[in-house]
Design brief:
By secondary structure, this protein is α+β, with helices and mostly antiparallel strands. Helices cover 35% and strands 22% of the residues. It has helices spanning 17-21, 40-48, 62-69, 145-167, 181-198, 204-213, 215-221; strands at 30-33, 52-57, 80-86, 89-99, 111-121, 127-136. Strands 1-2-6-5-4-3 form a six-stranded mixed β-sheet, sandwiched between helices. Helix 6 packs across helix 7 (215-221). The protein is globular, with a radius of gyration of 20 Å.
């Protein structure tokens, strides 16, 4: 389920978190969010309204991240592994899960995840490795490693359009900032990305270049005739 809420001017996403979720019956729902929303108040809100959370931990929670890094990951066997290829690279994800109840510096957290992502660029052969930590209120009996990997993958797939809008379309640098225009432009960008996906494109930057130089292909895709 994806829901949206307009962010107030001169603010950020954090104050909108609880009001957005108040529109949803969270009983039996798993709320996933990026590191900005790894806030204790957010976790309390989700759990007290009947849901569970799965949250990425980064530098905004330094003590928590330090605690996660110190967990005995070397003693934990690999529990899930996926390999994906696309966008000119090959990615291997390795996942380990550790039970952390009690003692973690975060309310209702019962499991922690360490995800190592190794990306190899096919053209250059250059490899990049990144470690991501995640916490969740889901107990092991409700979410095994395979289920947790699925939830994380679903979260990242939702984040992808936002990344494309920023990197490919430069949304954060847009000068369209007044009234309802920014929201309208975001909707148009989402529509454009969806149409390109529907047309079979996997690389949206390449698709944008293609249609920019061949507007007749864009009108054909939209079934617009002169």
């Amino acid at each position: 389920m994806i829901v949206e809420r307009r962010i107030a001017a001169k603010s950020n996403e954090i104050p909108a978190f609880a009001p957005l979720l108040d529109r949803i019956d969270l009983r039996g729902v798993v709320v996933t969010a990026d590191a900005m929303h790894t806030q204790r108040a957010h976790a309390e809100h989700v759990v007290t309204t009947g849901g569970h959370y799965l949250l990425v931990v980064k530098g905004n929670q330094k003590k928590l991240r330090k605690q996660l890094r110190r967990l005995p990951w070397q003693q934990i066997p690999l529990q899930h592994r996926t390999i994906k290829a696309g966008h000119g690279r090959r990615e291997i994800r390795r996942l380990k899960v550790c039970t952390v109840r009690p003692g973690l510096l975060f309310p209702h957290a019962v499991q922690a995840l360490e995800i190592k992502r190794r990306r190899t660029h096919r053209k250059t052969g250059k490899a990049e490795t990144k470690t991501v930590y995640v916490i969740t209120s889901l107990p092991p009996e409700q979410a095994d490693p395979a289920k947790l990997a699925e939830l994380i993958q679903n979260h990242w797939s939702i984040e992808a359009p936002h990344h494309i809008r920023d990197v490919t379309y430069g949304e954060d640098n847009s000068r369209i900032r007044t009234g309802t225009a920014p929201r309208a432009m975001a909707t148009l960008r989402n529509l454009t990305i969806a149409l390109m996906r529907q047309a079979g494109w996997t690389n949206i930057a390449a698709a944008a270049d293609h249609y920019r130089s061949r507007p007749q292909h864009a009108t054909a895709m939209l079934r617009i005739t002169a």
